[in-house]
UniProtKB/TrEMBL annotation:
Residues 12-257 form the ABC transporter domain. It is a peripheral membrane protein. The keyword S-adenosyl-L-methionine does not apply. It comes from Streptomyces fildesensis. This is ATP-binding cassette domain-containing protein. The keyword Disulfide bond does not apply. InterPro entries: AAA+_ATPase, ABC_transporter-like_ATP-bd, ABC_transporter_ATP-binding, P-loop_NTPase. Keywords: Antibiotic resistance, ATP-binding, Nucleotide-binding, Transport. Gene3D superfamilies: P-loop containing nucleotide triphosphate hydrolases. It comes from the Bacteria. It is found in: Cell membrane. SUPFAM superfamilies: P-loop containing nucleoside triphosphate hydrolases (SSF52540). GO terms for molecular function: ATP binding. SMART domains: AAA (SM00382).
Length: 334
């Protein structure tokens, strides 16, 4: 069963982990009341060494809070956390040498320094040997196409360029575990492909354990065999992506442009949900292939163009609520 790992083999372990924040809310003109917000609510899962796992959910679900506990930035309110056998909150410095972290909206690079100088500072912080540093830097520069950016101050980089720079910085010291929070945010299609290929290579060749949070389902589909869904601080699903789509009954959308306006088309395996001039939107199960639909349409109708739109994470989770899965239930991958 996906997600069930023997304790001796687990590289990341969470057992009934909770995180509660105290917040004060206005309760009158002069008075404020203290309330507790449960950001993470009894989450348990294990990740074996070398696995690449998608950790997804809507904004505010508890993803970043979980990662901050896994890195030692936050201390759990309850439960047990272990990363590479280390308690992150008790031995954060020791753990820092064994993990890499990329937060999509927060850079770890030095704002006014050229990219290459930021990497030199990373080398000194982690005391990376010269030979290993040169080898890792050359590899990252080549695979992430960073050569033209090395002399550019970080503040002058675009968001996509900075993201590639941050990913390289997180991997210079050969971390055993890599946490990625929205690693492809702001990247164009070509850059996204480069980052995904780079992460696949690092995972395959280095055996790096990767926990990936993203709102881009394509990241998950191309990189991860296992996905976990968190919402309102609880783990709602743990299994294969195809199983998630089946549980959530999610749908992809085939957007088709015809040569002329037509009545709503009828095609097996899909339903027409919208018609606007010569353009029509066809919904079909996310776990199904679009190829038979395209072949059927092409054989029967005058096509001009088409595209496939993936379901939003929020839509998948919303559908899960219509057929709720017990929290902490692991569903086998198909």
């Amino acid at each position: 069963m996906v997600g069930t790992v023997d304790g001796n083999d687990a590289h990341i372990e969470l057992d009934a982990v909770e995180k509660v924040f105290d917040v004060r809310r206005k309760a009158g003109r002069w008075r404020r009341e203290r309330h507790q917000v449960r950001a993470v609510d009894g989450i348990s899962f294990s990740v074996p060494r070398g696995e690449m796992v998608g950790y997804i959910g809507p904004n505010g679900a508890g993803k970043s809070t979980t990662i901050k506990m896994l890195t030692g930035i936050l201390m759990p309110s309850g439960g047990r956390v272990r990363v590479a056998g280390i308690d992150p909150s008790r031995d954060r410095t020791k753990l820092a040498r064994r993990i890499g972290v990329v937060f999509g909206q927060r850079t770890t690079l030095w704002w006014d320094l050229p990219l290459k100088d930021s990497y030199q500072l990373v080398r000194r912080m982690y005391r990376i040997e010269d030979v290993r540093y040169a080898k890792n830097l050359a590899r990252c520069v080549d695979l992430l196409d960073l050569g033209p950016l090395l002399d550019v101050p970080v503040r002058q980089l675009s968001l996509g360029q900075r993201m590639r720079g941050d990913i390289a910085a997180a991997l210079l010291h050969d971390p055993e575990v890599l946490y990625l929070d929205e690693p492809t945010i702001g990247l164009d299609v070509v850059s996204k492909a480069k980052v995904r290929e780079f992460l696949r290579t690092v995972n395959a060749e280095q055996g790096t354990t990767v926990l990936l949070t993203t709102h881009d389902l394509t990241d998950i589909e191309q990189l991860c065999e296992r996905v976990m869904v968190i919402d309102h601080g609880r783990l709602m699903y743990d299994g294969g992506l195809s199983g998630l789509h089946a549980v959530g009954e999610s749908e992809r959308t085939l957007v088709v442009d015809f040569e002329r306006e037509l009545p709503a088309v009828v095609v097996a395996g899909a339903r027409c949900v919208k018609v606007e001039g010569p353009r029509q939107w066809l919904a079909f199960p996310a776990a199904a292939s679009a190829a038979p639909l395209v072949a059927d349409l092409a054989a029967r109708y005058p096509l001009v163009d088409l595209s496939v739109r993936e379901p939003a994470i929020e839509d998948v989770i919303a559908r899960m609520y219509s057929s709720p899965v017990p929290a902490q239930t692991a569903v086998p991958a198909e």
